[in-house]
Specification:
Elements: E1 10-12, H1 13-18, H2 20-30, E2 34-38, E3 41-46, H3 49-73, H4 80-90
Parallel strand pairs: 1-2
Antiparallel strand pairs: 2-3
Length: 91
């Protein structure tokens, strides 16, 4: 995800509402999220769809890595040689 520019990427809901099309295009073009505030507090974030999917993909990989580390640490993992034998049997 691209870094947020605090002076450009935070705006009140009323400003967003008055020109939604412009802000949708801006998020799509810059790939930066847009933080929308309501009553002076952050309320929502508008993300480009591809950037959102990229975030989800990264989170899934990190969750898989965490699970693998937990399995290795608890000795529930499968050795490399055993996995290799399993794949060789499949082909």
């Amino acid at each position: 995800m691209h870094k947020i520019h605090l002076e450009q990427d935070i705006l009140p809901l009323s400003t967003f509402r008055s020109n939604m099309s412009y802000y949708f295009n801006k998020v799509k073009k810059t790939k930066r999220p847009l933080i929308i505030t309501q009553n002076g507090k952050s309320s929502a974030i508008l993300l480009d769809v591809k950037e959102y999917q990229s975030m989800i993909d990264k989170i899934e990989v990190l969750e898989d890595i965490k699970l693998a580390e937990e399995q290795i640490n608890s000795r529930n993992g499968i050795s490399h040689s055993k996995v290799k034998k399993m794949f060789n049997k499949r082909t």
